[in-house]
Amino acid sequence: MKVKKSSEDIPDGSKKKSFSVLCHVMCVLLGKCWVIAEKLEPSIVQKNRYPYAAIAELTYGKYMRIFVTFLLDITVFGGGIPNILVASQNMQLLGLRISQGSFNLSFCVWLVVIGVFICPIMWLGSPKNMKELATVSVLTTTSVAFLTWYCIEMDKNLENSVTTQQQNLKSITFNVKNLLKAYGIIAFQFDIHPMLLTIQMDMKKNERDHIGIVISLGIIVTIILSTITTLLAAFKYGASVTPNILEILPQSWTLYVIIFLVTIQLCISSAIGNSALFQHIEDILSASRDFTLKRCLIRSFLVGLAVIIGELLPRFDMVMGLIGGTLTGPLIFILPPLFFHTNSSSGRDI
């Protein structure tokens, strides 16, 4: 099965930065919503496995809780699909590059292999049980960023000269389709809202008031890494950049290390990101909160379902744009300020 690719232009760096700052503000508001909710309704702490939905119910009732729960579950589940798609594509690319094109294991097969590989990681509990994974994830992401910058800088291909690619960038015209796609992908990238409150619940009570500082530091680092990568890729490759930049980097052992690290990072982020969905499904099916066979079967089934959908939709950029452009909008931009305003005004100000 061949992966379909497209050559979309890179989103403007300043727009990406403004977008991420706005996402950061919404994250802080959402975190403060839970602090307010605890003071308004102390019993809400009993619903700490699904805090976003609990805030929705406290604010607007049962039907808002159902709506938010639906959005969260679909968003979290769909968000894991691009991870395994890119990981599978990277493994296929790694085999081709190392073997000089002689080893070309099907993308479909790699997708199944990745699914089997991440199942044991998915069996872990909530984010509080994944501190080691989170640490590895941070180190891996930072290493990948620096190594990618090095590979871009070391690409001496004459066709990628700065002058040529700057001319290519200037020739790009405004396209509504690409703009909407860029919005969807950036929204997907910075949508940590489904996981944010789950992590906040695992924090010590005296640490929760500092959730804004934690979010700020995370967003700032993300902005710096992604902006530098975007600018370097834009000036080096221009309009010829592919959705997966690893496909056009020059062949080297540094590239092989990057591909391997990115694959590991994607597997780890899938385990951490899907935690909220897994906990909700397990509550519905009355699964124990301890490590049990039932938990393993439920989570393995959901991973298998994601693999099947990935086989049917091999365009990871299309999946990211679809989820980011349709499902994450309410979760990022509408509900947090709405909940915060309603709970902190009309005599309920704390």
UniProtKB/TrEMBL annotation:
GO terms for molecular function: L-amino acid transmembrane transporter activity. It holds the Pfam family Aa_trans. Residues 19-339 form the Amino acid transporter transmembrane domain. It is a multi-pass membrane protein. Keywords: Membrane, Transmembrane, Transmembrane helix. GO terms for cellular component: vacuolar membrane. The keyword Membrane applies. This is Putative amino acid transporter. The lineage of its organism: Eukaryota, Metazoa, Ecdysozoa, Arthropoda, Hexapoda.
